[in-house]
Design a protein that fits this description.
Chain B: Its main location: membrane. Chain B: One of its GO terms (biological process) is peptide transport. Chain B: It is a peripheral membrane protein. Chain B: This is ABC transporter ATP-binding protein. The complex is a heterodimer. Chain A is built from twelve helices and no strands. Chain A is mainly α. In chain A, helix 8 crosses helix 10. Chain A has a domain of 172 residues: MetI-like fold. Chain A starts with a helix and ends in a 9-residue tail after the last helix. In chain A, 78% of the residues lie in helices and 0% in strands. Chain B is α/β, with parallel strands linked by helices. Chain B has a single domain, classed as P-loop containing nucleotide triphosphate hydrolases (Rossmann fold). Chain B contains 14 helices and twelve strands. In chain B, the strands form two sheets. Chain B has an eight-stranded mixed β-sheet with strand order 6-7-8-3-9-10-12-11, with helices on both faces. In chain B, strands 2-1-4-5 form a four-stranded antiparallel β-sheet, covered by helices on one side. In chain B, strand 7, helix 9 and strand 8 form a beta-alpha-beta unit. In chain B, helix 5 crosses helix 6, helix 6 crosses helix 8 and helix 8 runs parallel beside helix 9. The longest helix of chain B is centred in the middle third of the chain and has 18 residues. Chain B is globular and about 65 Å long. Chain B starts with a helix and ends in an 8-residue tail after the last helix. Classes of the chains: A mainly alpha, B alpha/beta. Chains A and B meet through helix 9 and helix 10 of A and helix 3 and helix 5 of B.
Chain lengths: 308, 348
């Protein structure tokens, strides 16, 4: 197991380096001069030159890149031009908000998607099953910013049940989390449904019934445990998805996470903050995948690091 | 051997714990179902092993599952009754069935690897029976399970409790399944081809375990098998199924030494017998597909005794002629008398 984790960590370093490099190139290829944005339209050529040299922007790209990489290795992703502080510090300060939002979305997806899928599997092809499979397609086709705005109008403005923006309360997280989760509830339900139908036809299910185990436990314990591996796989992917999708949702809901931070940073060509935010997302995505792989071994006793 | 038959003759006086009365099982919408099992009569009596013999697809497994109320989706008992302790189970709720499964009637399945849940430890799965029915704590259930695993011959049970099915050998898995079935000392034990998926060397051990426990606890046991050799070693009563019907039933001795149905006769002729060397005689042709039964007797197209009446009239199940002292030897054949008087088909 140790060797398995070590190998995965090695791969993770390569992926993180790749993401870092890509973002470094992309932010610099996109038009827009940070010095002009910092100083405003009236800045003189001298002032611009001064600022550029302050931030090392007058060096050739390869030198900027190497300096950037060297900084990353020392845990220094540079300073924010706009906020003045350490870019990584700013990002990590905002990260818990994004994590909270994503986790609540994940819990909502599981709590609604799993039982829904189990219900569909009981009567495949019946009304609920068809509704869920249609709903999951529609849900994934709807753009999340639009869904967010519709939900704000409905639940915050018309009904007044939930606050539209972050106010630090549990209720405040519900609306953005639900917006994140909604497209994936039907998706998870479909996955659970298909797994439950496939597993439900297996002999061990009949054995459980032959022991006098109540149907609910047969489904949720005996079948549920066997569809856990694919479900955990997609939940890991989903969590990564949520952290990435949060970029849009956080702006719509003014949620103080790294998504809205990143959008601000992009607008202001705050290179260091963009890079720090992307690196944070990349690392959390990799960490999630590693966590999922380790959880597999706990879920399926037949798996070992050798045959995985 | 003869003493066994006498014992059985006495045992038939006992009341059956479970019985099937004219049971039809069909797939499909009510009124338009394809019949797969047709009018099965079966008595399961304490202390007696009844064997249900037939080819795959003859309806043996469905008949057995009907006794557990575990027919697969789409199949249902469309006529007749499944009685347990003299009670018709037709209107049983899930909860009523659940109370019977385990303490009253239990089942050992064909393929223990598939029948065990791959994601839980063997011990946990056996212990579940205790937890569901006796409401005992995990700790008590574990203690009882380890004890039980020992009695079915699983060595080092304390340690093996925590093993997963894939870590067990085939024979050990079937022992675990037997432990699960015997946990609550059921009165009826159903065994659906319990040794078919096992190595030949292990088959005998598993059979011995089943019959020993059956005899000790005087359980009524139904052994589903297509292996006439296994049946001869274990059963006292035999019922032969063909295309969803029981075509012949009686004591082991009656059915094996004086078969009155040409299908039984064919099965026995197709079995190796040291006393009758030579090539085995196969039954020509294939059994009919369910829902595509020929008019008249379902076996007629493959039967060398068949006459005109066989192709038009499905024979009733009647006592075999000339068996006054019979314990219930019956056959569904127009020509039983003729078949009784015929020598087995010559082997070449």
């Amino acid at each position: 197991m140790g060797a398995f984790v070590a190998k995965r960590l090695g791969q993770a370093v390569i992926v993180a380096w790749g993401a870092l490099t890509l973002v470094f190139i992309i932010v610099r290829v996109v038009p827009g001069d940070p010095a002009k944005l910092i100083l405003g339209p009236d800045a003189s050529a001298d002032q611009l030159k001064h600022v550029r040299s302050d931030f090392g922007l007058d060096h050739p790209l390869w030198r900027q890149y190497l300096e950037h990489l060297g900084g990353v290795l020392h845990g220094d992703l540079g300073d924010s031009w706009r906020l003045g502080g350490s870019a990584l510090g700013d990002t990590l300060e905002r990260f818990p908000a994004t994590l909270t939002l994503s986790l609540v979305a994940l819990v909502l997806t599981i709590l609604l998607g799993f039982p829904l899928g189990m219900l569909c599997a009981r009567r495949p092809g019946k009304v609920l099953d068809l509704l869920v499979s249609t709903g999951s397609l529609v849900g994934q086709a709807v753009p999340s910013f639009w869904l967010g705005i519709v939900l704000i109008l409905l639940f915050a403005r018309e009904l007044g049940w939930l606050p539209a923006t972050a106010d630090g309360s549990l209720a405040g997280v519900l609306l953005p989390a639900f917006t994140l989760a909604l497209p994936f509830i039907g998706w998870l339900a479909r996955l659970v449904r298909n797994g439950a139908l496939e597993e439900g036809a297996k002999d061990y299910v009949r054995t459980a019934r032959a022991k006098g185990v109540p149907e609910g436990l047969v489904q949720y314990v005996h079948v549920g445990r066997n569809i856990a591996v694919p479900v955990v796989t997609v939940l890991g992917l989903l969590m990564g998805n949520f952290i990435a999708n949060a970029v849009i949702i956080e702006v719509v809901f003014s949620w103080p996470g790294i998504g809205s931070l990143m959008v601000d940073a992009i607008t202001n060509r705050d290179y260091a903050v963009v890079e720090a935010a992307v690196l944070t997302m990349t690392v959390s995505y990799i960490a999630l995948n590693l966590l999922v792989d380790v959880v597999y071994f706990a879920l399926d006793p037949r798996l070992t690091p050798e045959n995985a | 051997m003869s003493s066994t038959v006498e014992e059985v003759a006495g045992a038939t006086e006992a009341t059956p714990v479970a019985r099937l009365r004219g049971v039809h099982i069909g797939f499909g919408a009510p009124g338009r179902e394809r019949p797969v099992v047709r009018g099965v009569e079966l008595d399961l009596v304490p202390g007696r092993v009844t064997a249900l013999v037939g080819e795959s697809g003859s309806g043996k497994s469905l008949t057995t599952l009907a006794l557990m109320g575990l027919l697969p989706g789409g199949a249902r008992v469309s006529a007749g009754s499944v009685e347990i302790d003299g009670q018709d189970t037709a209107g049983f709720t899930d909860a009523q069935w659940r109370r019977l499964r385990g303490p009253k009637i239990a089942m050992v399945f064909q393929d223990p690897m598939a029948a065990l849940n791959p994601s839980f430890t063997v011990g946990w799965q056996v212990a579940e029976t205790f937890r569901r029915h006796q409401g005992v704590s995990h700790r008590t259930a574990r203690a009882r399970t380890i004890e039980l695993m020992r009695t079915v011959g699983i060595p080092d049970a304390e340690h093996k409790y925590h093993s997963y099915p894939h870590e067990f050998s085939g024979g050990m898995r079937q022992r675990a399944m037997i432990a699960m079935a015997l946990a609550l000392e059921p009165e009826v034990l159903l065994a659906d081809e319990p040794t078919t998926a096992l190595d030949v060397t292990v088959q005998a051990q598993i059979l011995r375990l089943l019959t020993t426990r059956q005899a000790e606890a005087r359980m009524a046991m139904l052994l589903v098998s297509h292996d006439l050799g296994v049946v001869a070693r274990v059963a006292q009563h035999v019922a032969v199924m063909y295309a969803g019907r029981i075509v012949e039933a009686g004591t082991l001795d009656e059915v094996y030494t004086t078969p009155a149905h040409p299908y039984t006769r064919g099965l026995l002729d197709a079995m190796p017998d040291p006393g009758r060397p030579g090539r085995l005689v196969p039954i020509e042709g294939q059994p009919p597909a369910p829902g595509h039964l020929p008019a008249g007797c379902a076996f007629a197209p493959r039967c060398r005794f068949a006459t005109e009446v066989c192709r038009t009239d499905d024979p009733a199940t009647l006592p075999v002629p000339g068996r006054g002292t019979s314990t219930g030897h019956v056959a569904a054949c127009h020509h039983s008398a003729r078949i009784l008087g015929t020598e087995p088909e010559a082997r070449s």
